[in-house]
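agent: user wants the structure for Asparagine--tRNA ligase from Niallia alba. delegating to structure tool.
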Amino acid sequence: MKATIAELPKYVDKEVKVGAWIANKRSSGKIAFLQLRDGSGFVQGVIVKSDVAEEVFQTAKSITQESSVYVTGTVQKDERSPFGYELLVTNVELIHTSTDYPITPKEHGTEFLMDNRHLWLRSKRQHAVMKVRNEIIRATYEFFNENGFVKVDPPILTGSAPEGTTELFATKYFEEDAYLSQSGQLYMEAAAMALGKVFSFGPTFRAEKSKTRRHLIEFWMIEPEMAFVEFEENLEVQEQYVSYVVQSVLKNCQLELKTLGRDISKLENITAPFPRISYDDAITFLHEKGFDDIEWGDDFGSPHETAIAESFDKPVFITHYPTKIKPFYMQPHPEREDVVLCADLIAPEGYGEIIGGSERIHDMDLLSKRVEEHQLDPETYKWYLELRQYGSVPHSGFGLGLERTVAWISGVEHVRETIPFPRLLNRLYP
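agent: tool returned. relaying tokens verbatim.
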């Protein structure tokens, strides 16, 4: 019976054949232990010299790290194993011998590991992070599909900047200038006017020269957009979605979270509703905490967000930011022209902003005015303005950064571990 490591619990006391790589090994004169991985999981294979042919035991003793094998053995329960099972091996067939594998069980520097990212992905820790990432993606599709959203794919090549920023990667689109998308939001607004509730999931690019542990040049965004949804309801969807994703990871990635040493008690508390603090109150709070460098009208940096988040044991919404520091398309507060109906969701434990969202301007005249005030080309945004010309409605949306969310839920320090092949300020290899 051929099986994957993840399937072994179904075959207790039965013989199976597993294709695997040797993650590690140790042996004595009478017994050998092979740490096996096959992509679906990790399991220990135990080979007792007296129970196998001499050549099988010698193969097990001499086999090298990351060599590929077919292993035949009987599945047994093992309470000492994190996986809960082990394989009592009766035969080892060598497929390919790996020599001088560069990533050994010893400690390696970050730059070395990043240079060997194509191999580092094989490690137990990186495997666990990627499984958590996969579960977040799976739960995302499940949540939005179950709540009546339609998946829509916005373009990656665009002719303009969605947020009017200059931090874009420019390219030539035949005779025209084009940019790699930094957000699919404007296109998702068009899709919402056609399909009601929509979401996208795809890569985005920011030419931001930042080296912090929270930043990537290329990252993935989940961007829902909803017609007939105003500010408060938008926040409710966000907290329900984040709660759903966290609880799904807790349910389906217990072994991975244990591998990562994650304190799951901090995740078990992540259920809606989430606390909220206005930008005004956040400024007052920061002044009370000794942050004299921040004034009303300034955007928050990482230290400010962390200080605010530390006062809560759940993600916290910071709402109603000043109009002048937010993009042109955000709906003004009905009673205050100086702030907009927006919110950033700040993750606990110093992981920073994971969601930015707002109610969008639905009045044609006001949006035209904002385009002019931000010195944007009306012709470039003509199609976007037309969404308000033909049956405009109140609508809202948000964007969740996948990698920051993976970092927070899995408990890893740097976002470079949360994407298979990170693109950083000085890294385009491998």
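agent: one observation worth passing along. DSSP finds 13 helices and 18 strands in the chain.
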